[in-house]
Design brief:
With 194 residues, the protein is α/β, with parallel strands linked by helices. The chain has five helices and eight strands, in the order E-H-E-H-E-H-E-E-H-E-H-E-E. The chain has an eight-stranded parallel beta sheet with strand order 4-3-5-2-1-6-7-8, with helices on both faces. Helix 1 packs across helix 2. The longest helix is centred in the first third of the chain and has 17 residues. It starts with a strand and ends with a strand.
Length: 194
């Protein structure tokens, strides 16, 4: 799962949501494993989320630009990211961090490296949010809320049996219902899961 911090965004809300998406619980499949940050907000956002992650013992595996900014964070556990980190589902207190030019580059990165489970954009730009919802190819796509809400019970489906990232699930004779695939869209205003 990816959390993308857009330019523009509410920095305080983005810190709160990015923290929750990663550290609310490390082991579920809806925990954020990769943090993408628009270059325009990186100097303000990264030191703040870096301090939160450092205090909680989260290792940040960073691209060179993010690494340079996060070097100033006291007690930060930092490492240089390798290609495999962009694909990784850590299920642990580890997150990959990458700077991007903006929403277009974030979408390309997500569609290449994602498991297509859940992605979230944190933004104050309505057009960026709509583009992200439309173009990110994942089962759940969210605006201004934690990826941790991607859950059958949270979606009102009762006890969750499993989550599928496949687009085609039918077996045997198939009618139109069997060819339909869902994409859950969640709109928020900084909500986090407790």
């Amino acid at each position: 799962c990816h959390t993308y911090v857009d330019d523009p965004c509410d920095i305080a809300m983005a810190v709160k949501v990015a923290d929750n998406a990663k550290t609310n619980k490390y082991s579920p499949c809806n925990a954020s494993e990769s943090l993408l940050v628009a270059r325009g907000v990186a100097a303000d956002f990264l030191p703040r989320i870096g301090a939160v992650y450092a205090a909680k013992g989260v290792e940040m595996r960073c691209d060179p630009e993010a690494l340079a900014i996060l070097q100033t964070v006291k007690d930060a556990r930092l490492a240089e990211a390798v290609e495999q980190d962009w694909y990784e589902e850590y299920l642990a207190p580890i997150i990959s961090v990458k700077l991007v030019d903006g929403v277009d580059e974030a979408i390309v990165h997500i569609n290449k490296y994602s498991s297509h489970h859940t992605e979230s954009i944190l933004t104050t730009n309505h057009l960026h949010a709509q583009k992200f919802l439309r173009e990110v190819d994942s089962a759940s796509v969210m605006v201004n809320t934690s990826t941790r809400f991607a859950d059958g019970f949270e979606f009102g489906l009762g006890a969750e049996i499993g989550i599928s990232t496949d687009k085609f699930h039918a077996r045997g004779p198939v009618g139109i219902e069997g060819l339909t695939s869902l994409k859950y869209v969640v709109l928020g205003d900084g909500e986090v899961r407790s």
